[in-house]
Write a structure and sequence with these properties.
With about 200 residues, this protein is mainly α. Helices cover about 80% and strands about 0% of the residues. It contains six helices and no strands. Helix 2 runs antiparallel to helix 3 and helix 2 runs antiparallel to helix 4.
Amino acid sequence: MRVGHMTRLLHDSLRGLGFDNLLERAAEDIPDARDRLDYVAKMSEQAAQRVLNATDIAIPLQATIDDGAKKISIALRGLLDQSSSVEQYKELAAQTMEFLKQANANSVETKAHLMDIMMAQDFQDLTGQVIKKVTELVQNVEQQLVQLLIEYSPDEIKHETSDSLLNGPQIKPEGKVDIVSSQGQVDDLLDSLGF
């Protein structure tokens, strides 16, 4: 009975302050944010798979070019180090022409795979936008929750808090005294608010 009465009192208080709309919106936004983050994870996984597949195919193509160039170089050095016949030069020229044909084909295919690797990164623009929206949602919910904690804290504690707590996460907290930068400070803040 008492828990039910406390729940009703809290509900009525939240509605009176307009926080029921916030909670309703959060109830809708949080699943949407989860879906958005799932989308980012899937797009990242697909891009990584495309990059790995293209790399797996391109590496042997480049190895074939490298091996062929080494063989041609060794054969040419051998011809130059000894007196060689015209037929031996013609045979090496034919091998060189075949190698150049294969190297050209491998280069064209490698370029296609490099382009696929580059295109696999196109997800970053889209997922960056999604991450930005999710970050804004989280910051908004955080601000509202902190404001709720401040409004329902005892009067003697209210004057100790400031709006600087609503600035969201700080990327470089070193040297700043008006921000919460560690879990210990968060715990201290909640303790000071009576939570």
